[in-house]
Every structure is written in structure tokens, then in C-alpha cells.
Design goal:
It is a single chain. By secondary structure, the protein is of the alpha+beta class. It has nine helices and eight strands. A six-stranded antiparallel beta sheet has the order 5-4-3-8-7-6, sandwiched between helices. It has a two-stranded antiparallel ribbon with strand order 1-2. Helix 2 crosses helix 3 and helix 5 runs antiparallel to helix 9. The longest helix has 22 residues. It is globular and about 60 Å long.
Length: 257
């Protein structure tokens, strides 16, 4: 149900930007029209305006995100004042386990990736800051969901759960049971749900009783062993304990998410 207080023309512009943002290879005007349901006659002047103002750019009919969106995203990153605390610990995690480390926050039903540190591996997992995936299908997301009640989680997924692979959790009751296990263990372990060849472990970062963000290590399944998994879980918990100590020394009004 739409909120009558919302401004539909503004929602239309945001829908266009979000659709283009989700397709980093670029979309044609026709593709944007098909995906947003906005008629070309209505879409064209909006897109041309966004291109003129550099929120979008066009090359060989492919429309992608423009410089102004980068500036907005960069400004948001600087507003996350706890990142300066977390980054060195993320690098330490990468140095010690030689796998990619990522930081995420909950964005509605999704997990939004806001920082990453990569290892110097010949074969490594590709990822990018600003990516969003269904929280229900990722270790980062399940950790973030563990800060919510069952009722709140159900409300997030009234339209169902997104499937990425044959291993993705798509049943809400199964998801709730998994989240319960995450709460009990203090970490999430996901194998092949968001990417069939990738395994991921994640732990929460808390400010007091609240989950501020989640930190993860992902690795190709072929590099996984029980010993390595346990080592990564211990490493994540150890580093997060140090992160939380620093964050909780900051005045609450200085912490933004």
C-alpha cells in the first residue's frame, strides 16, 4: 500500500536511479522503461535531466550511474564515522586469514555492503562497496536480522525470499530458525546461498545492546576446511571485541549509521 504523503514524481526518479544502480553494466532507455514500468514518453525527459545534471551518464546508448551519485555516496561514507575505527581491524583480519573481509548494514530486507578489504590472492572473490543482496541469503544479513524480532523479519519478507542458488533459503520458517541459531552461537555461517562457490562467516558489531553493523569473511569453498572455518570465527570474534570496545568509548551522539 502506498503512503498518500509520498510524492509520486520523486518516487519515480528514485526508482530510475535505483534500477540503473542495480545494473552496473548499463541499461538502455527501453530496458529502464521495462524494469520500472515507466512509459518512455514520461521516462525520457527525466533521464535526460539526470544525465544533464550528471546523476546519470550515457555511452553508446548504455545508461549508467554518474559522478553526482558518486559524490552523494562518498558523502554518506564519510558520515559513517565509525568506519575509521573498523578499517584497521578489517585489514588485520585479511592479513591473518588471507581472505576478503566485508562490512554491511541492514537496508530494509537487504544487506548493504559499505566497506571491504581484499587479500592478495591469485583466485579471489569479487565484490564492491555499495552492493546490496537479500539479507536472508547471506551470513552478514542473517547476523543483522538477528537483532530483529520474528515479527519484524516476517514483515520484511511479505513478498517472499530471494533465491540466488539452489542452496538459498527461501522458506521464512527456515530463515527464522537459522536466525535463532545465529543468536545462540553469536555468528552466522552460510555456504553457497548467495553464490554457489562461496562460503561466508559473519559476526555482529554492537553498540551497547544494538547491532550497529556486521563483519564477515568470505572464501571460495575449495579453500575451506573445518580448521580454517573455526580459525576465522575466532578471529572475527576477537577483532570485533576490540572494535566494540573502541566504539562504545565514543559518545553516542558521535556514532552514526
Amino acid at each position: 500500500m502506498k503512503d498518500s504523503k509520498l510524492h509520486n514524481p520523486t518516487l519515480r526518479v528514485l526508482n530510475i536511479l535505483e534500477t540503473v544502480c542495480a545494473n552496473n553494466k548499463g541499461l538502455t532507455l527501453t530496458a529502464i522503461s521495462n524494469q520500472t514500468g515507466i512509459a518512455k514518453g514520461t521516462l525520457y525527459p527525466i533521464v535526460m535531466t539526470l544525465i544533464h545534471e550528471r546523476y546519470l551518464q550515457i555511452h553508446d546508448s548504455a545508461i549508467t550511474i554518474g559522478q553526482q551519485c558518486f559524490k552523494l555516496g562518498n558523502a554518506y561514507e564519510h558520515s559513517l564515522n565509525y568506519l575509521s575505527i573498523i578499517r584497521p581491524y578489517m585489514q588485520e583480519i585479511v592479513n591473518r586469514c588471507d581472505e576478503i573481509c566485508q562490512l554491511g548494514i541492514l537496508d530494509g530486507p537487504d544487506v548493504l555492503y559499505i566497506e571491504k578489504k581484499e587479500p592478495d590472492q591469485a583466485i579471489r572473490i569479487t565484490s564492491y562497496v555499495g552492493k546490496a543482496l537479500a539479507a536472508s541469503a547471506t551470513a552478514l544479513g542473517k547476523v543483522l536480522l538477528s537483532g530483529l524480532s520474528d515479527e519484524m523479519i516476517r514483515e520484511l519478507y511479505t513478498h517472499g525470499l530471494t533465491r540466488y542458488t539452489e542452496k538459498t533459503t527461501v522458506d521464512i520458517e527456515t530463515l527464522l530458525e537459522q536466525v535463532k541459531i545465529v543468536k545462540a552461537k553469536g555468528y552466522a555461517h552460510e555456504i553457497g546461498e548467495s553464490h554457489i562457490e562461496v562460503e561466508c562467516l559473519a559476526v555482529p558489531i554492537r553498540q551497547g545492546p544494538d547491532i550497529l553493523a556486521a563483519l564477515s569473511v568470505s572464501l571460495p569453498i575449495f579453500r575451506s576446511t573445518p580448521e580454517k572455518i573455526q580459525s576465522i570465527v575466532s578471529l572475527l570474534k576477537q577483532q570485533v571485541h576490540l572494535i566494540e570496545h573502541e566504539i562504545n568509548q565514543m559518545p553516542s551522539k558521535q556514532i552514526s549509521i
